[in-house]
Amino acid sequence: MKIIAAQEEHIPVIREIAYKTWPEAYLNILTEEQSEYMLDWMYSASALKEQMLQLEHRFLLAKEEDSAVFQGYVSYELHYKERPETKIHKLYVLPEYHGRSIGRILIDKVAEEAKKNNDTAILLNMNRMNKALNFYTHLGFRIIGEENIDIGKGFLMEDYIFKKDLYL
């Protein structure tokens, strides 16, 4: 598996993965209107550029060695809220590549980077109805809470908060 640090020139690739993955991930969870709103809010070229350059979100892209196509990505933030924790903001793998351990490999890479930077845990939020629940618990994440986040236009993100301790 080849993992690269995404740069500003990779924004179209990240957007393509998001737009191809989102419908399957949220098909029976979000309305079409909310999906469109959230995709524009989080995945417009300007939003991704802001995440990379101002918010210090790091993006990693993954592809199999023999592939010309990036198959997934993760974005994360070290020292989230100035605590010794790394926050995964996004993790998506193209549906046709599910089951090939790409998500696990990306999370392992984030864990490696977190440890190098003296963070002791990884956090992430996930919609409470998302079918990826077992994926995260299988990888050692545990639910530590719930939160509802008002994202505007009358839309609400209803999430679980997950945590994985890196030094157990």
Brief sketch in words of this structure:
By secondary structure, the protein is of the alpha+beta class. The protein has helices at residues 11-26, 32-43, 45-53, 102-116, 133-138, and strands at 2-5, 58-63, 72-77, 85-93, 121-127, 142-152, 155-165. Strands 1-2-3-4-5-7-6 form a 7-stranded mixed sheet.
Report on the structure:
With 168 residues, this protein is α+β, with helices and mostly antiparallel strands. Helices cover 35% and strands 32% of the residues. The protein has five helices and seven strands, in the order βαααβββαβαββ. The chain has a seven-stranded mixed beta sheet. α2 (32-43) crosses α3 (45-53). The longest helix is centred in the N-terminal third of the chain and has 16 residues, at 11-26. It starts with a strand and ends with a strand. The model has no long low-confidence stretch (mean pLDDT 93).
Q: What does the secondary structure layout of this molecule look like, with pairings?
A:
Blueprint: E1 2-5, H1 11-26, H2 32-43, H3 45-53, E2 58-63, E3 72-77, E4 85-93, H4 102-116, E5 121-127, H5 133-138, E6 142-152, E7 155-165
Parallel strand pairs: 4-5
Antiparallel strand pairs: 1-2, 2-3, 3-4, 5-7, 6-7
